[in-house]
């Protein structure tokens, strides 16, 4: 197989979108239903716990605290999109900085979530205590797991870039991780509003 | 990247057992994976069939106690689960795999290694869910797994653990497959293969994939909730803590109703390929058939609560879902009429695939009509939990899906293997199966209206259900005989039948333009599509404009054979897939011994190693 | 043989490609982020005063929808990447929204 043969083997797709990008978007549509099911379960069981504590009976969310961690996650979307912009310009240094920044903000969010979980447990809200604990921990836990997977992918990108294996031509890799990352962020926007802010 | 060269005669490595097994374990070729899906699903068809025969034997006569009631529960649970998740769905996927890339003029699917991963996950999920038989804890709460019957308090053994763990893996397998096929169909179409020129089977694959992509996450979450309830003592379905078992019903049927169409749409697509070919007429009203399929896909999201009419949803919800359920009969009816009008006035050739397609249409009409009777809420209240329901869904899933899928096997067998299936044996198979099928499931209508409940282990003599049950059991063994004849047909035909050639049926679509079985690269030159039914179009042009027509369909020479780049074989899909069942076995047994969390960890490591190798493997 | 980085779609009607220089620049991304930050601050401010429940909920939902749409349109490039992707994603969103709304209403009506 000669080099020319490889060079001409550029994927030409029927829609013009790269296979992987289309895959990611369809996957995200699927994820909408995943988080939709979990959020629906939470909303359905809101206020139906029998044993306290739950919101409205011996428990209140720490809104300032969670607002800050929501803000951190929101800003990680900015650093993510700046990382993409950097690799598209071919600026490897900026790419690494923004990738690390995004991963750092993601870790901050997860750390914040771990602290929040601990404080909830101290207030008596556990997975087993009541419906509130069950639905809250499973919903936010699966969201946190998604963030963790995102952080792992960001760190992999960073490692690739450090070894010089993430050239400008493979900016799609960053774009795909970015799409996933932003999605996890918008899901948190929905969770923060429906679970934390809206009181019924 | 592997470069496929035309093999020189005599230069092929001699096939040995080890090499064949290694080839299967590492293949990423959509045709081989399609055949693997087909054989595996046929194997589980036999398993599910044996379970069905065991059920029918127990019910053949009143007051029988051939085996325990607990075994009976496991049998009907595993029969349903097997036939739905391990037979009908993957057999549809077998055809997606083998046929869709050929019909759209592609060399493979968009993600060949993910395709292999789907297959291995399917196989491991199937093995996991059947493990219960070997450790004396087969799932036994029905294929629908209604909570809170399935929670730890009411199902203390590991039975339901195998069920949720197996289904979870099968769900991941289907999701990955569906994403792959959606991208393949949207992106890998040959030049000129516009959406409205795609064969109806490809359209139905696209709709099925969309349904899977959107429906599977719902069952995934339901299974996660069940798993947490069972393994980590959460309260999703714990009534003592305010949990609501009706939530399970909603989540399950939100998935479960699209699932019904996930099973039937591939068969509808196959029938839409067979009928025009053997009637020598283009499909009547192609756009209407396509849009009806899409409409069915959309509407399948608005009817789920008709499975719950007797749950007590209230008059408003019941009425709304009754209306939407009756509405979904419209696009289905439209399709039936289009099939009938396709055959009407056609130059019909009565070959085995055609018989199966007509069998599909006829049986599906019966199942569809009894389905409309359940849409009426008061009527459903009468029929609910009786054999009448069992009659209905076997008419749509066996009379419908299985007849359609067997039609597909007879239609595409020559393409897959290069040999025709024997017509004579094939027709024997068809008639025996049709008669056996109606003998088995026809009497269920009578039994159901006579009040025989579903899932009962045995029944007293004085109910008068003995006669029809005996008829049904004889019918079931007739079906078994017909399947045996089918297997004989496969073995005999592979040995004795003549070569099929490229186009044995004088067919319409691109898969019949290439040799049977197709070479690894499918198309030496990527075809250019200029019409719906491209092969017929090409044949007509050849006949009427002979000199110019030579170039039709192959104007664009992309690459010469010998320089076609195909994806290399890889064993990483197999390794990656292995991680999930290991994790699941760990999760199942950690409730007995916390040390088994180590097994879960080992599964994660296997998964990560596989994924890492996968990502760094040169392609 | 070099090919242009953006491949020509075979079926251009589904795609509306925008040349890279039409995509937002870094400064614009920062501006969008500031906008999002302001919305988040608004949410916290609205949370505290003792306003009546309903308008508060409506306001929260609107703010979340605007944030969601902004991230999807600009950070995820949906605004620039053509119709097909937007159709795919909105199908998922719309279905998740409507199906679960109906499910929750149905269950609540039962009790």
Question: Explain this structure to me?
Answer:
The complex is a heterotrimer of chains A (200), B (619) and C (111). With 200 residues, chain A is mainly alpha-helical. Chain A has a single domain (14-197), classed as Four Helix Bundle (Hemerythrin (Met), subunit A). In chain A, 75% of the residues lie in helices and 2% in strands. A two-stranded parallel ribbon of chain A has the order 1-2. Chain A is elongated and about 55 Å long. Residues 1-10 of chain A have low confidence and may be disordered. Chain B is mainly α and 619 residues long. Chain B is built from 17 helices and 2 strands. In chain B, helix 4 runs parallel beside helix 16 and helix 10 (352-375) runs antiparallel to helix 12 (387-417). Chain C is mainly alpha-helical and 111 residues long. Chain C has helices at 26-47, 53-75, 83-110. Chain C is flat, with a radius of gyration of 20 Å. The interface between A and B is large, with 38 and 42 residues.
In terms of topology, how is this protein built?
The complex is a heterotrimer of chains A (200), B (619) and C (111).
Chain A: H1 3-8, H2 19-45, E1 54-55, E2 58-59, H3 63-89, H4 92-122, H5 131-162, H6 171-197
Parallel strand pairs in A: 1-2
Helix pairs in contact in A: 2-5, 2-6, 3-4, 3-6, 4-5, 5-6
Chain B: E1 2-4, H1 17-26, H2 30-59, H3 69-103, H4 112-134, H5 159-187, H6 200-232, H7 245-279, H8 286-299, H9 315-343, H10 352-375, H11 377-383, H12 387-417, H13 423-449, H14 466-496, H15 534-544, E2 564-566, H16 572-589, H17 597-616
Helix pairs in contact in B: 2-3, 2-4, 2-14, 3-4, 3-5, 3-7, 3-12, 4-5, 4-16, 5-6, 5-16, 6-7, 6-8, 7-10, 7-12, 8-9, 9-10, 10-12, 10-13, 12-13, 13-14, 16-17
Chain C: H1 26-47, H2 53-75, H3 83-110
Helix pairs in contact in C: 1-2
């Amino acid at each position: 197989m000669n080099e020319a043969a490889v060079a001409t083997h550029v994927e030409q797709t029927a829609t013009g979108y790269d296979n992987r990008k289309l895959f990611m978007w369809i996957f995200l549509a699927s994820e909408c239903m995943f988080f939709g099911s979990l959020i629906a379960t939470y909303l359905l069981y809101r206020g139906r716990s029998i044993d306290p504590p739950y919101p409205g009976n011996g428990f209140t969310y720490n809104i300032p605290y969670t607002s800050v961690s929501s803000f951190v996650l929101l800003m990680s979307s900015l650093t993510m999109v700046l990382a993409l912009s950097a690799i598209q310009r071919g600026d490897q240094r900026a790419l690494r900085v923004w990738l690390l920044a995004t991963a750092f903000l993601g870790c901050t969010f997860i750390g914040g979530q771990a602290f929040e979980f601990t404080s909830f447990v101290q207030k008596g809200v556990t997975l087993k205590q009541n419906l509130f604990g069950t639905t809250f921990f499973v919903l936010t836990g699966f969201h946190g797991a998604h963030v963790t997977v995102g952080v792992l992918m960001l760190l992999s990108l960073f490692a690739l870039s450090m070894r010089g294996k993430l050239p400008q031509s493979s900016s799609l890799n960053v774009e795909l991780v970015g799409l996933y990352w932003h999605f996890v962020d918008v899901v948190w926007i929905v969770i923060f509003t429906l679970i934390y802010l809206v009181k019924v | 990247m592997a470069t496929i060269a035309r093999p020189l005669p005599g230069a092929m490595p001699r096939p040995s057992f080890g090499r064949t097994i290694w080839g299967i374990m590492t293949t990423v070729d959509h045709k081989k994976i399609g055949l693997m899906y087909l054989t595996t699903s046929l194997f589980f068809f036999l398993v599910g069939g044996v379970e069905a025969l065991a059920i029918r034997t127990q019910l053949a006569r009143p007051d029988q106690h051939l085996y325990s009631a607990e075994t009976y529960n496991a049998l009907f649970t595993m029969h349903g689960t097997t036939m739905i998740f391990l037979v009908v769905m993957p057999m549809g996927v077998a055809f997606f795999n083998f046929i869709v890339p050929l019909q759209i003029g592609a060399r493979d699917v968009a993600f060949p290694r993910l395709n292999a991963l789907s297959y291995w996950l399917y196989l491991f999920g199937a093995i996991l869910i059947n493990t219960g038989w070997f450790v004396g804890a087969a799932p036994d709460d029905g294929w629908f797994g209604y909570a809170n019957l399935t929670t730890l308090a009411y199902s203390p053994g590991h039975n339901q653990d195998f069920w949720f763990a197996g289904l979870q893996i099968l769900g991941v397998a289907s999701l990955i497959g569906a994403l792959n096929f959606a991208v393949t169909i949207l992106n890998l179409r040959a030049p000129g293969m516009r959406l409205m020129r795609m064969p109806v089977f490809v359209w139905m694959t696209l709709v099925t994939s969309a349904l899977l992509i959107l429906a599977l996450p719902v069952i995934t979450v339901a299974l996660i909730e069940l798993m947490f309830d069972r393994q980590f003592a959460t309260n999703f379905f714990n009534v003592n803590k305010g949990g609501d078992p009706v939530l399970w019903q909603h989540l399950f049927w939100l998935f479960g109703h699209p699932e019904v169409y996930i099973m039937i749409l591939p068969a509808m697509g196959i029938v839409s390929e067979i009928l025009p070919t053997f009637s020598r007429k283009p499909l009547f009203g192609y756009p209407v058939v396509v849009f009806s399929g899409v409409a069915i896909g959309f509407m399948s999201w608005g009817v789920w609560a008709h499975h719950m009419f007797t749950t007590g949803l209230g008059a408003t919800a019941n009425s709304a879902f009754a209306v939407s359920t009756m509405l979904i009969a419209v696009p289905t009816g439209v399709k039936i009429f289009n099939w009938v009008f396709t055959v009407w006035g056609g130059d019909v050739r009565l070959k085995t695939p055609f018989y199966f397609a007509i069998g599909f249409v006829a049986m599906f009409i019966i199942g569809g009509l009894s389905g409309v009777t359940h849409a009426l809420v008061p009527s459903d209240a009468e029929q609910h939990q009786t054999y009448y329901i069992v009659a209905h869904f076997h008419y749509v899933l066996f009379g419908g899906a299985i007849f359609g899928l067997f039609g597909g096997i007879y239609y595409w067998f020559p393409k897959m293997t290069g040999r025709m299936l024997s017509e004579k044996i094939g027709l024997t198979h068809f008639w025996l199966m049709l008669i056996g099928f109606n003998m088995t499931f026809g009497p269920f209508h009578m039994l159901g209206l006579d009040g025989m409940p579903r899932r009962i282990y045995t029944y007293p003599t004085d109910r008068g259900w003995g006669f029809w049950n005996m008829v049904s059991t004889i019918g079931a063994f007739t079906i078994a005989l017909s399947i045996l004849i089918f297997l004989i047909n496969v073995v005999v035909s592979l040995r004795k039948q003549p070569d099929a050639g490229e186009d044995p049926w004088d067919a319409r679509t691109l898969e019949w333009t290439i040799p049977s079985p197709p070479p690894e690269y499918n198309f030496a030159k990527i075809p250019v599509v200029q019409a719906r039914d491209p092969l017929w179009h090409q044949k007509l042009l050849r006949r009427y404009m002979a000199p110019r027509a030579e170039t039709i369909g192959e104007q664009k020479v992309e690459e010469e054979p010998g320089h076609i780049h195909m994806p290399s074989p890889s064993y990483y899909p197999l390794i990656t897939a292995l991680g999930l069942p290991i994790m699941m076995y760990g999760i199942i047994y950690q409730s007995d011994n916390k040390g088994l969390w180590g097994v879960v960890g080992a599964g994660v490591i296997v998964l990560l190693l596989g994924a890492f190798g996968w990502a760094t493997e040169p392609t | 043989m070099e090919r242009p980085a953006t491949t020509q779609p075979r079926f251009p009607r589904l795609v509306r490609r925008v040349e890279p220089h039409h995509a937002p620049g870094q400064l614009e991304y920062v501006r969008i982020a500031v906008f999002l930050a302001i919305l988040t601050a608004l949410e916290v401010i609205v949370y505290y005063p003792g306003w009546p429940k309903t308008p508060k909920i409506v306001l929260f939902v609107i703010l979340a929808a605007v944030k969601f749409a902004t991230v999807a349109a600009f950070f995820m490039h949906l605004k620039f990447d053509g119709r097909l992707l937007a159709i795919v994603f909105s199908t998922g969103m719309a279905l998740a929204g409507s199906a679960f709304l109906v499910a929750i209403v149905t269950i609540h009506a039962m009790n």
